[in-house]
């Protein structure tokens, strides 16, 4: 289980995160929503240990998060890869880093689940579509079977049709592998449809934390209600209302 316990992160003279706390169990999905500058990406960096916490701590099963070797799916699919390397070589990097012998059957199963043609991995990032690069990014994140996967705006670079398809693929792979998923997103419709819980982040603080259905039905904070109502006005929540 991921335990984020009262963490605060400084950025220059101000706090980018302030007393943020939540837990996330294996197999569950937490969506972190909020406007730009709310601290969502800083939260991912803090969990991964890329920025120091001024106070509080982050653990996985009572041990440092780095010990569980979490995986990250980045926002920009193509820029997440070395342009000079084949996608196959990039996918294998986590296994090389962890000194794990590649399992072709495991790779084939993941490719099948993510609808990645085998020959696609022999191409370079510039030779595939953004949607294909996104699926390969998820493949690389899952290749070493991490218990925790962090997704930083995983759908924002995709068109509407590809967004829906990718969202379903992520959910299917999570059910198959049972990892805990923390998803940072601006898309409240995506959060409501696929997350178990929603955390609303505002100015570095957790404004509210609730189950996804409870948030859609009756947000606990005025800010949460504004986000929910705006999503309804845009039609993003019609399918989950």
Proportion of beta-strand residues: 15-25%
- Percentage of residues in helical conformation: 25-40%
End-to-end separation:
30 Å
Q: What's the number of structural domains?
A: 2
Overall form: globular
Listing every helix as H and every strand as E from the N terminus to the C terminus, the arrangement reads EEEHEEEHHHEHEHEEHH
Strand order of the largest sheet: 6-7-8-3-9-10
Give me the number of helical elements.
Answer: 8
CATH topology of the largest domain: Rossmann fold
pLDDT under 50 segments (min length 5)? none
Strand segment tally: 10
CATH architecture of the largest domain: 3-Layer(aba) Sandwich
Q: Write down the overall mean pLDDT.
A: 90
- Quaternary structure of the protein: single chain
Give me the CATH superfamily of the largest domain: P-loop containing nucleotide triphosphate hydrolases
**How would a textbook summarize the main sheet?**
6 strands, mixed
What CATH first level of the largest domain would be assigned? Alpha Beta
């Amino acid at each position: 289980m991921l335990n984020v316990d009262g963490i605060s992160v400084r950025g220059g003279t101000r706090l980018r995160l302030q007393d943020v706390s939540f837990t996330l169990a294996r197999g569950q999905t937490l969506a972190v929503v909020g406007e730009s500058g709310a601290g969502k990406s800083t939260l991912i960096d803090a969990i991964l240990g890329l920025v120091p916490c001024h106070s509080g701590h982050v653990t996985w099963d009572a041990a440092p998060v780095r010990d569980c070797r979490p995986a990250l799916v980045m926002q920009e699919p193509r820029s997440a890869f070395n342009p000079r390397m084949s996608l196959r070589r990039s996918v294998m990097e986590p296994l090389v880093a962890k000194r794990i012998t590649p399992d072709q059957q495991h790779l084939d199963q993941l490719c099948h689940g993510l609808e990645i043609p085998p020959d696609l991995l022999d191409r370079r990032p510039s030779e595939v579509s953004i949607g294909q690069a996104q699926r390969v990014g998820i493949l690389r994140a899952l290749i070493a079977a991490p218990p925790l996967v962090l997704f930083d705006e995983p759908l924002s670079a995709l068109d509407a049709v590809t967004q829906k398809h990718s969202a379903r693929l992520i959910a299917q792979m999570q059910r198959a592998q049972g990892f805990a998923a923390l998803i940072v997103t601006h898309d409240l419709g995506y959060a409501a449809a696929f997350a178990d819980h929603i955390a609303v982040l505002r100015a570095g603080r957790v404004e509210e934390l609730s189950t996804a259905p409870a948030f859609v039905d009756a947000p606990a904070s005025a800010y949460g209600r504004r986000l929910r109502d705006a999503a309804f006005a845009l039609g993003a929540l019609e399918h989950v209302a």
